Amino acid sequence: MLREGKVRIIGGKWRSRVITFPDEKHLRPTPDRVRETVFNWLGQDLAGKHCLDLFAGSGAMGFEAASRGAEHVVMVELNRSIMHQLHASREKLDATQVELVKMNALAFIASDVRQYDVIFLDPPFQLDLLPEFITRLPSHMTEDGLVYIESDHIVDLDEQWLVWRSGRAGKVYYHLLKLKKNG
User: Residue 11: exposed, middle, or buried by beta-carbon count in 10 A (0-12, 13-18, 19+)?
Assistant: First the structure.
């Protein structure tokens, strides 16, 4: 039997609701205390915001944003079993504002023309995809847009980015970024 993991939504209308995710090798849900910190930085009320969760995985960040009132959340995930569980979680929560896209994240970024207020970017660490994505995100951000990234090392950013907030939990580094031109 396939094992499942569980993560609890920590705020908003679905506070304390539990979502499940498949036991996949490189799936690392953002821990509760990190999500709590990030959503304190973002503000508890995301009403009217449009969010993008690339490499959605467990869905913890995207469902947390939707729980806190985000108007629309796009969650991108390529893995079939993970996507199946994301559909089940969306249905369980009746999260009609969540759009699920089964697609390679790079292909999605190349084809999507929408702009987002918050972009969550947490690719599998071993793939080292952050540098490639960071250069592609500015055109997908609203003027006041923010990007949340997670990594297993301190990320070297180019001159267009400003680290607005950052933290570390164990071996995970996390940052909230904005563009310097909007900073």
Answer: middle
Q: How many angstroms separate the first and last alpha carbons of the chain?
A: 49
Question: What whole-number distance in Å separates Cα of residue 5 and Cα of residue 71?
Answer: 27
- Residue carrying structure tokens 């930085």: 41
> Which of 33, 34, 16, 17 has its CA nearest to residue 120?
34
Q: Is the pTM of this model over 0.85?
A: yes
The span from the CA of 2 to the CA of 170, in Å, is 28
Other CB atoms within a 10 A radius of the CB of residue 109 amount to 20
Q: Which two tokens stand for residue 11?
A: 């705020």
Q: Judge residue 159's burial from the number of C-beta atoms within 10 Å of its C-beta, 0-12 exposed, 13-18 middle, 19 or more buried.
A: exposed
Structure-block tokens of residue 117: 């207020």
- Per-residue pLDDT reduced to its tens digit, 151-172: 888 888 888 899 999 999 988 8
| Closest of 42, 32, 48, 146 to residue 97, by C-alpha | 48
Q: Render the burial of 36-53: b for 16+ CB within 10 Å, e for the rest.
A: ebbbeebeeebeebbbbb
Ordered strands of the 50-54 beta sheet: 98-102, 72-77, 50-54, 116-121, 141-151, 172-179, 161-169
Q: Please report, as a single letter, which amino acid is at residue 119.
A: I
